[in-house]
Amino acid sequence: MQNYMGNLAARMSKPLRIRLGGNGMDASRYVPSLKVPIEITDDSNFQTIRTNFGPRLVDILDGMMQKVGKMQFYLALSTLFPDGFDDMVKFAAYAKEKLGDSVDAWMLGNEPDLYSSHGKRPGYGIEDYIPEIETYISKLKDANVIGDEPMVAGPTTCCGWDVNDVLNAGLDKLPYKYYTIQQYPHNICKGPNNQNTNISHYLDHTKVDPYLTGQKVAIKHIEELGVPLILSEFNSVSCGGSNISNTFAMSLWVADVGLKAASMNFTAIFIHTREQGITYNLFDPPAPDRSLEPEWSTGSPYYGALFLSEVTSEGGNMIIDLNLNNSETNSHSKVAGYAIYDDAGAKRGKLALLNFGAEEQVFSIPPGTVEDSVTVRLLLAPDVYERRNISWAGQTIKENGILEGERVDVEVKCSEGCKVRVPGPGAALIALDDVEEGRAKLFKGDSTVQALTAGYFEEGEDEESAAVRRMVVSLTAMVLTGLVGLIHWW
Question: What is the pTM of this model?
Fold first, then answer.
């Protein structure tokens, strides 16, 4: 876990953002007296594993941050059990004490729009939701978890309510730091079909805009309110992914969605990962009970995350879809391109070029764009169906989050214009003048590998301590829904 987290954190211009949430978190209860981080209470529902969790869960987050570096956490507070609100406030109070300003927001509930249809709270509607949220915020204020500055996020809906109806019902009057939505292009909740197994959908740039703007009226309302908008959960196919969710096509799709979301003024996006064995996962241990053994495997979406982690810069960025070959509207186009401006849009920083086809694409950079040369890093695989032989800047993650091979950068002289070749399929991140004010625009290290723990016991460790240590690793990867926030644009 430290390796996978560290690889991303080292390349990012902002702290790595982690959302601990999802249906598992929403269906779980906080038990302040619990001596272990987490205990499963009901795993009969594949989509919602119920647990009890205790203060040690927070200690794990803090411990991971101490190993990997500064993080920011979005911690979900369940709204599924009204009789558990007070305990969730205790959880928030302990997390605030332990994590301090590393908690960026408290996310109130997860998919409350599905409570009724899923039989969790029959008849539950927006008219019930708003008063409960008001009560929740009052409890958090009374416990000094939040003060005058907005610190809550929501409604984290997906499919059942129109977000604009939620805003108009009173959410827009409450002190929200972020508004959050989550959505997937397709689902496999009722089994495979022609849509959720259609890889071509994810190789078509014209499909990304409609996917991200499913609730256009609400997005416009949110923009008028001036509250940052977050895509709090996304991946290829919900309810566990399909046979195409771990292919190289999804490496490219994750990069495309991240860049497109930024160009549309989303403040952040979170890519979803779940328990071991879900096909869209970013990474997986060899088995749920063998998390400290080697042979962790890397999912193809992780490479898209690795690509995105190098996109931004310290001064903030503005991203523009270049509409190459009319790619925003032409479904036959095999390319997409983005201009990435640094210093909050003041100067040209990078280009991101995506090639969804099988043939090499040649892109021209005109004269006067850069003073000297450009540095090109490539995301590559033999074909869009590839699952393992994927590389970023010449390096492949073989196992355990360790980047293997020498980093490869392609330097192209470009003061008088130049051409950049992107093999198909593949993507290129191009730094225009790689060094600026003494800082490299692209990450120069080879990896951020932490020492691997060999075996189940460490010297002098008793069985109980070893069990807790194993749980530390297993917990984050498999039991609760963890999400890695990769893009933060301001």
Answer: 0.92
